[in-house]
Design goal:
Chain A is α+β, with helices and mostly antiparallel strands. Chain A has 6 helices and 3 strands. Chain B binds a DNA duplex through helix 5.
Chain lengths: 102, 102
DNA sequence: TCTAAATATCGCATTATTTCGATATGGTCA
DNA sequence: TGACCATATCGAAATAATGCGATATTTAGA
């Protein structure tokens, strides 16, 4: 758990919004029609839809998602041409605990 | 509650360490001998001692403490020539809750 | 009122982050 | 294979954060 990297991710409001959208993809994104049945309902969202909603360029959102993955705030899975990201709830919970105890 | 400002504070490891020292000043700082009896045990620590331990210049630590106060992560009280800072536990708790729910 | 101590503020150089456009990579399907 | 789509990576310019030294402010005490 690299708390330094985690807090650096959170220091950017667009990244925080992405995290919060991924908390409940159903209300923030259309259905992931290319995602196989077995992966539905796990909170995965593809990069393109996140980019659209975030209002930044494709390269920027890709960079953000990578930072969030390095910090283990997100996990990802590549399926076909798409990369799907979802929250890593364990890291978020540990981060909350860290702040409460810190 | 300006979460953006709070996360920006936390994005710096020296500031995070200051916050954690102030969680338990007794084990990290000598007694505050100039602090009146009525304020003892409330977790107040003066700027000079925080500076020494943080290993940055006086102007830098003053700047940091001000950022943390603006973000309501710290409160302060001026007594004589000294400014004493202590944690604002309410903000820290709300921040932890925010991350857990976000 | 002068001096000294503690802290705050200012100005600035350095370094890091942000964010883009361009390009590369990897996967799909005709 | 070749064209195309989604995503990743690269390189660079703009902006923001870091952190210092110098200086100002505030308070205490002689």
């Amino acid at each position: 758990m690299n708390m330094d990297a985690i807090f650096k991710v959170l220091a950017n409001p667009v990244r925080v919004r992405i995290l919060s959208w991924l908390k409940d993809p159903g209300t923030h994104f259309p259905p992931m029609i290319h995602l196989p049945e077995a992966e539905q309902g796990k909170g995965y969202v593809c990069v393109g839809l996140i980019q659209e909603k975030a209002g930044v360029t494709q390269s920027t959102v890709s960079h953000y998602l990578n930072l969030m993955k390095q910090a283990e705030l997100l996990s990802c899975k590549r399926i076909g041409q798409w990369t799907y990201y979802c929250r890593n709830e364990a890291t978020l919970q540990k981060t909350a605990d860290y702040i409460a105890r810190m």
